[in-house]
Amino acid sequence: MAHFQEKLFDAYDAAEEDYETHLATYVEELSAKRFDTALESCDGMLEASPKDAEAALCRALVHALRGDDDEEDDDYCTLWLKRCDRWRVDGEDCMGVPWGERAQRDFPPAKLKQRPAWQKAILDLDRPAACDDAQAARRFLARCARRRDAAPEPPQMPVVEITESTAAQTVLDHVVDHGELPEEMEDDRPLVTVSQGLDEETFQTLKAALVNHPRLQNADSEALGASFAGSSGFVVRFDGWGGVDATAKKLWVRSETRPLVPFFRRCADKECTGFVLNVLVVAPAEDEEEVVVDENAPEAVKLLLRKKAEESIDEQYAVGWHRDATLGLKPGADAAPPLAHRVSVLYVAVPEATGGELCLRNADRPPWRSERGVIDREVAPKQNRLAVFRGDAEHAVRRVTNVTKADASFPKGHRVSLVLEQYRVPPGLREFTMHFEIVEGKDYERVSD
Ligand SMILES: O=C(O)CCC(=O)C(=O)O
Ligand SMILES: [Fe+2]
After folding, report:
1. The sheet that has 317-322: what strands, in order across it?
2. ipTM > 0.85?
3. Residues with CB under 6 A from ligand 1
4. What share of the chain is helix, strand, coil (3-state, %, to 5)?
5. Given this model, what pLDDT does residue 314 score?
6. What residue segments make up the domains of the chain, in order of their start?
7. Are 268 and 161 in contact (CB under 8 A)?
8. pTM: predicted TM-score of the whole model, two decimal places
9. What CATH number was assigned to the domain covering residues 192-443?
């Protein structure tokens, strides 16, 4: 019995923590009038605590502020009056009466429409205080904000200092040393560096979170994107004007992205102000016969075969040749999204198989189409390996075929990597960067030459 109770308490605590995280995000989003993301947080709150009246009210507030008329809110709002912590647990009271029944008895439901005071409170929320209820609602939001501020700081992962000097610093050094501006800036960063990713314990925690991640439960063929057949996953876009800590916090306050914080902190370049974090899942592909052009065949057949052979070169890649330039800018920006400055890739799950290598071409190469076949470096993926490459380098990921042993956590033979594209966004584009958004992998367009 005690055992059962302990389990129940653990489950309760976990749900509570999740709930608080969503609530914190809700307050942040609502105060910035980002109603869509505020509503997403409400969904998260209601998921963690389905009968929670506070969550329901939060949802109704967003709808009211946005001017939506949502019938469901009426029902939800009646719950506000029934607010009681015990509602978060199904079961019966000490007399054997189910909590639901008891609440119906003690607090007879009424529709929001029949509660003019609450309606007014909601509508008045954005205007100067006019009635007590509006004040109550404001107090409620202030309480949420206080709770958010009192939330414990995320555990601090060591920030890896990026020693590479910035372009501005290089220019300044040159001016100090030579008394004039440099003629041409040389960018002599290495094409790619490879090192260990995270400490083993942190890595395993991150991996376990991804195995159970709700957005990866459907990493099968139907979730695959058309532009990069063979890959799926999800993508988080966010700007980083407030520095590494404030940016990591954006990931931390959302339960979906919290497990990614150690990876972000390991890789974040503090000069970068825009990020695209991609959880990339590459499914194994059927091994296809290579097209051989028989030189003795008739000319027309040879032509056809050559064309097919050309096409099959492209098909050797699960992620085709591209440079990363995926920083979504809001409408109105009159500049193309910049190329990534650096890209960091952590390999989370790697099957024993043929292929899967990250292929790279030097940054000064012309686009792949004009120099087909040239590859300057290949990085073999390996669990907990971190590859960091220049954002101006063209790259691709080879198909994964002939899986002989899948990773135990991804038994279908998937290759899973975390990709952090890091951008130095020109200050002029600041107002067009995305505060935070999550998109499905299939809706994510890389930009290639
Ligand atoms: O997983 C990798 O090795 C790199 C993936 C990549 O380049 C991308 O997702 O844009
Ligand atoms: Fe890429």
Report:
1. 317-322, 395-398, 358-360, 377-379
2. yes
3. 278, 280, 319, 324, 345, 358, 395, 397, 417, 419, 446
4. 45, 20, 40
5. 77
6. 2-150, 192-443
7. no
8. 0.60
9. 2.60.120
